[in-house]
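Hi U.,

Before I forget, here's the chain from the pilot set. I'm dumping it here mostly so it's searchable later in email.
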Amino acid sequence: MGVFQNQKYRSSAAAGTFAAKYRAVMAKRPFLLFGLPFMAVIVGGSFILTPATAIRYERHDRKVRQMSREEELSVGRGKRKVDIREEYYRLAAKDLDNWEQKRVKRLEGESDGVLE
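Structure:
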């Protein structure tokens, strides 16, 4: 049995083409085929994700903002005073033994949990 060659046969006419030169360069420097596109994706992704992350934090800052002193003082004005004894007697006066279970109205298309 004869020994097969390790490389494919390429005619001398195809040796001078752009594809042959490109193939030879890629065989010598695999970084151009694998490493360079990978690095380009990493660096490009960083530039693309930076504004997206900034938008995320700006939206959070709009929701959570610092209150001014006047807003802090006006927040607690509408509340009623709570006395623990008064709340106890108010709840004790309720009739807790006589109650009826009511189902909450579901949104359209939402399962109500009743098996048919």
